[in-house]
Amino acid sequence: MQSAPIGISPELNQAPSRIGSPRISPARKQKASSDDPSAALRQCVIDKLEGMKARDLSLIDVRGRTSVTDFLVVASGTSTRHVKAMADDVVEAAKALDHAPLGVEGEREAEWVLVDLGDLIVHLMLPRTREFYGLERIWGVEVPKADVAESLNA
Fold first, then answer.
1. I need a labelling partner for 142 at 20 to 30 A (CA). Which of 7, 51, 127, 134 fits?
2. Is 141 within 8 Å of 7 (Cβ atoms)?
3. Cα end-to-end distance, the chain, whole Å
4. How far apart are CA 122 and CA 120, in angstroms?
């Protein structure tokens, strides 16, 4: 069976058409199902981040590669205030689904805010922080260098 690059959910991920656009196409989003109770949470977080104008939104499937979580969401914000606002909205959206975060780290500096939702961990970062730590590279997801460089200059 042919699969997408390691760590990418092919149904939810597609190449960005321009810098700053989300990688998740609204037309290709997975619908929440009773088979996967965390799907509703993932969809809610993705919708919230898209609504908050998150840049370079990625969903990485890490099931079978780590026991810590099933999915990672990685997105960039335009400023520390934007990153913090996105994190706050993600927390509120999760609470609205009766899914209180297990922890939130990095809110004070807001260069990288991590929201731990159990089966889903959300990483919200400034572009320079995202490039430095390279979470996509760690999990085997390629990000074109031109996209990162251009988003830093934006």
1. 51
2. yes
3. 40
4. 6
pLDDT tens, position by position, 101-147: 999 999 899 999 999 999 999 999 999 999 998 888 887 765 544 44
Query: Helix 80-96 to helix 38-51 angle, to the nearest 10 degrees?
Result: 150
Quote the pTM value: 0.70
Contact predicate 78/25, CB 8 Å: no
**Nearest 5°: CA angle at 109, between 105 and 115?**
25
3-state DSSP assignment of residue 148: helix
Residue whose structure tokens are 């949470």: 41
Cα 22 vs. chain centroid, distance in angstroms?
Answer: 10
Q: Which two tokens stand for residue 49?
A: 């981040």
pLDDT tens digits, one per residue of 20-54? 433 443 333 444 444 566 888 999 999 999 999 99
Domain 26-153, CATH 3.30.460.10 — does that match? yes
